[in-house]
Design the sequence.
C-alpha cells in the first residue's frame, strides 16, 4: 500500500505531462495572398476578402483565436508556411511541390484562370498549344495546377509582378497575360485599363483553392474538422455569399463609392 501511495504523485505528474504535450495552442496564425481581390487582399493593414473571413469563421468555430500575419509578397507567404512561421495559408492551389510541406483541405472555392490580350489583338485560343508561338507573361509566384504548371515550361512566358505583367501586355512586349479572372478584372479596373484589355473566351484552366496547413504546425490534426466546416459553408452557400459581398466592396473601392 505504501508503494502505491508513493507512486501516485509520479503518476499524476505523468498524466499532467501527457495532457500538456497533447494540448493544442489556442492561437492559430494564418496568412494568404496579399493581392487577389475579391478573394483576398491587404487593405488598411489588414487581410480582407472572402477567404480571410471564411478562415476566421472556421477557426472561431474550433475555439481558436485567429491571428492574421501580413506579407507583401506571395512567395514570402509560401516560404513562411514552409518554415513553420505560420500555421495556415488560407487559400492556395495544390501542386506537387507544395504538397511536400503543406497538408491540403478539400476544395474551398473554384477559381477560373484566363488569358488576357490587348484590345484588338485577340487570337484563336481553344487549347494550350495555341500559346506556344506567342510571348506571354504571368504574375510571379502563381501556380495554375500541376498540369498547366508543367505545360508552361514549353511556353515563352515571363514571370513579373501583376502590375508589370499588365504593363508589358499593353506596351506590346507580350502577346498575352495568364491570370486568375477575379484579380485580373480588379487589376484592370484599378489601373484604369479595363477598356484596353480583352478576355479570350476559353479559360486556360479552372482550379480549386484549398486551405493548407503547414506540416510543421501542431494544427495538422484539425484537418478533418476544417474539412467538415468547409463542406458546411459550401452547402449552405455562405462562401458564395461572401464572394459576392467582397466583389461589391472592391467595386465600390475602385470607383470611389462611399455608403
Sequence:
Amino acid at each position: 500500500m505504501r508503494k502505491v501511495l508513493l507512486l501516485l504523485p509520479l503518476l499524476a505528474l505523468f498524466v499532467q505531462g501527457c495532457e500538456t504535450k497533447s494540448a493544442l495552442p489556442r492561437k492559430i496564425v494564418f496568412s494568404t495572398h496579399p493581392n487577389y481581390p475579391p478573394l483576398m487582399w491587404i487593405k488598411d493593414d489588414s487581410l480582407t476578402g472572402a477567404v480571410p473571413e471564411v478562415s476566421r469563421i472556421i477557426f472561431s468555430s474550433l475555439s481558436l483565436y485567429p491571428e492574421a500575419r501580413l506579407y507583401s509578397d506571395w512567395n514570402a507567404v509560401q516560404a513562411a508556411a514552409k518554415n513553420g512561421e505560420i500555421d495556415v495559408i488560407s487559400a492556395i492551389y495544390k501542386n506537387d511541390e507544395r504538397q511536400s510541406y503543406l497538408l491540403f483541405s478539400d476544395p474551398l472555392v473554384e477559381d477560373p484562370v484566363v488569358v488576357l490580350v490587348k484590345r484588338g489583338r485577340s487570337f484563336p485560343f481553344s487549347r494550350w498549344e495555341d500559346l506556344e508561338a506567342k510571348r506571354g507573361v504571368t504574375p510571379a509566384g502563381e501556380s495554375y495546377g500541376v498540369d498547366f504548371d508543367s505545360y508552361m515550361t514549353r511556353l515563352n512566358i515571363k514571370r513579373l509582378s501583376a502590375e508589370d505583367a499588365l504593363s508589358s501586355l499593353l506596351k506590346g512586349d507580350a502577346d498575352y497575360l495568364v491570370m486568375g479572372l477575379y484579380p485580373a478584372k480588379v487589376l484592370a479596373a484599378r489601373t484604369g485599363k479595363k477598356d484596353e484589355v480583352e478576355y479570350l473566351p476559353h479559360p486556360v484552366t479552372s482550379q480549386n483553392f484549398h486551405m493548407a496547413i503547414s506540416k510543421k504546425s501542431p494544427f495538422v490534426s484539425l484537418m478533418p474538422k476544417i474539412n467538415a466546416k468547409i463542406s458546411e459553408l459550401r452547402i449552405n452557400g455562405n462562401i458564395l455569399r461572401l464572394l459576392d459581398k467582397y466583389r461589391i466592396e472592391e467595386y465600390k473601392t475602385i470607383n470611389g463609392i462611399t455608403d
